[in-house]
Amino acid sequence: MSNIKSRLAALEKASPIGPAIWRRIIQQPDQTEDEALDVYGRDRIAPTDRLIIRKIVDHAMQIGG
């Protein structure tokens, strides 16, 4: 286990911006991606952050019911 930790530490140290920060954004069915980012708070997201946007899909609307 210590070998993995030392390899991970070496990779993080070699990265010019440090370890990646991932932000999970929830996009509701009635929101655009921009609206979801506004709700999350654009000021909380740094330019170097990576985003995972999870779009909630209303299944009833998909099947026409």
Main pleated-sheet profile: 2 strands, parallel
The proportion of residues in beta strands is: 15-25%
**C-alpha Rg, in Å?**
18 Å
Strand/helix succession: HEHEH
How far apart are the first and last residues' alpha carbons, in Å?
52 Å
Mean pLDDT: 85
Chain-wise SSE layout:
Elements: H1 2-14, E1 22-27, H2 33-40, E2 50-55, H3 59-62
Parallel strand pairs: 1-2
Task: Give structural notes.
The protein is 38% helix and 18% strand. It has 65 residues and is an alpha+beta fold. The chain has a two-stranded parallel ribbon with strand order 1-2. The longest helix has 13 residues, at 2-14.
Give a short summary of the structure.
The chain is an alpha+beta fold.
List keywords for this structure.
single chain; 65 residues; alpha+beta; two-stranded parallel sheet; 3 helices; 2 strands; 38% helix; 18% strand
